[in-house]
Amino acid sequence: MRLVAALLATAMLVPFEAQARDPVMASQPTDVSVTVYRDPDRGVDDSMDRDWPQGFAMISETRTVTLPPGESTILFDGVSEGMVAVSAIVTGLPGGTIEKNRNADLLSPASLVNGLLGNRVRITRTNPASGEAKTEEAILRTRADGGIVLQTSAGYEAVRCSGLPEKLTFDRVPTGLSANPVFSIDTRDRTGGTYTVTLTYLSWGFDWEAHYVARLGEGGAKGKVFFDLMSWLTILNDNYQGFENAQLLAVAGTLNIESDFESLAEAPEGNPVRLSCYPIGSTATGIPERDLLPPAAPPPPPPPPMAMAMEDRIVVTGSRMANALESAAPVMVIASEEQLGDLKLYRIPERVDVRAQGLKQVAFLDKERVEGKFVYSASCNPYEWSEGDWSDRLQGTTLNLETVNEEEKGLGVALPSGGVTVFEPSSAGPLLIAERRIYDYAVTQDVEIEISESSMVRGLCQLEDETAADRLEAGKWAQMRAVLRNANSRMARVRLSLGTPSDWDIRARGNPDELHKGFRVAYIDVPPGQTREFRWKIRRLDREED
Hints:
Layout: H1 2-13, E1 24-25, E2 31-37, E3 55-67, E4 70-77, E5 83-91, E6 99-102, H2 109-115, E7 120-126, E8 133-140, E9 149-152, E10 155-158, E11 166-169, E12 182-189, E13 193-219, E14 224-237, E15 243-252, H3 261-264, H4 289-292, H5 305-312, E16 315-317, E17 319-323, E18 327-332, E19 336-340, E20 343-347, E21 352-354, E22 358-379, E23 395-404, E24 418-424, E25 431-438, E26 446-463, H6 468-473, E27 478-486, E28 492-499, E29 504-508, E30 515-516, E31 519-526, E32 531-540
Parallel strand pairs: 1-4, 2-15, 13-24, 16-22, 22-28
Antiparallel strand pairs: 2-3, 3-13, 4-12, 5-13, 6-12, 7-8, 7-11, 8-9, 9-10, 13-14, 14-22, 15-20, 15-21, 17-18, 19-20, 22-23, 23-26, 24-25, 26-27, 27-32, 28-31, 29-32, 30-31
């Protein structure tokens, strides 16, 4: 009695606001935005890994919460399982944040048992002979770490070890335990009240990539070609939580990321109950395992064919109905481009559902009649020389579709790296002619899409004679010669790489000083069905001429 009185007296000395309170549950998000960043370690030539995305997203949720006076613990139910808890920021609370925590357990058989340790539950046993079910109260006496012991009117006994089918029934779920990931913070409010708060955090398990579709059109004067260019953003959410009616954004560019988000975003676990007992019954056969377990629930019926198709397909946000009463024509929804420091931000103008474990495709580019040109490229090795007829040794060139990323050419927008598919019109309809990947292209940069190796435009370049190599080694000028042949019915422009200006001094007709990817180049127009020769002189810059 003295001990009880002392404890009561001590409790009375503790300020009211410091005494334990039940956690306060924040509302479900009334507004949410999802900003997706690409995997910073993914190379330009690598596609997005849909089975193990290693990008991330910044998620911002607006919720309301009603706080009592004093200290409170606020629970945010349903955050992303890939949440990086150390990155979380909560704004809008008058008392700020005292402490924040990420719940490590999800609602599961094991966490349910562990959370109600010492509490009363009901155990139901069914007699397999008569089918009669009998229910009685019991008290949980052990955790779910290998076995569950109950205290019943008959004494202490282990669950699933009586030889009868059994099940446990719980009257409630432990406070703070949820089937969804939960983030909690401690705060203090002197008066209490209802507040609108914003929870912002980073989450692991996202990624996005761009893909372009180029449709070649008619040609123009001086070798011009016009094409339509459309692109899609494919955004992946690998978490088991979706975000409905969200403002969706994607960031293009390379970020300097030093943190290991994968290790910081340890998903909460939902653990099963694993029970084992000594054999019971006949020493010869024992009791069949099916008699020790409760009857299994029947499997759910298979979804109808249409539902299965809906589950497997990619959700595409590319069009919406302009006005169902006026027109049935779809209107394209195009992501708008914004500047974000040295990065590019693509904002989806309409709210979308970012589904759990799903892909979302959104159009962000739709340009018609982009002006480009076909260029055939070839490179020369200054030390190459061999005897024989040149016509027997001509090699194919590389055909490229090139343009300049500026408004005058029909573009003038940032182009993030991704795949590109090129179609060319024919009498049988559009035909696939190339599938490649492109780099990030800023505005005003030259855009180059490699189409294929051409067998119609061929060429060969080498030293003029076998003594030219000795002159190069001695630091003297040597003659180079290129032969180009065009079997097409149209003019072919060939870009010939002559060498790097840091290694070679080059003299050619007109002294070409144009550079392409660090090489001095010359452009040669070869008429249809004809052969052209091009000659120039080179000298090594690290050798002095006698």
